[in-house]
Amino acid sequence: MEEYELHLERARRSFEAFKLLREKGLNEDAISRGYYAILHLCFALLVKNNLDLPKTHSGLIAKLWQNKEKLKIGEDTVRNISRIQSLRENGDYGIVSAIKEDDLDLVERVYKELLKIVEDD
Length: 121
Description:
79% helix; 6 helices; mainly alpha; globular
């Protein structure tokens, strides 16, 4: 299996975990799995476009900004991925949960949008 396909598979499994955790009301864990599903879709997109993978989470956002036209992703999508990244950090490290249903809806929308871009490209 190629690196691209491995990232797609990892994204799909993480998204399945996101949905299961969301159903159980485990919002902090769901946001984390949702973020990683999006991260792996971004990695698949970068690999597919012959771009190097970033070494950090903030590096991912920078790489997306720098290559948004080539990757065919909009500024709003990059902003949303950055927001989801922040929500994941809050969910993983925060004491009081700030994760709302709207945040989980955002994860689902961004995941589906990126999946379409990855599969159409």
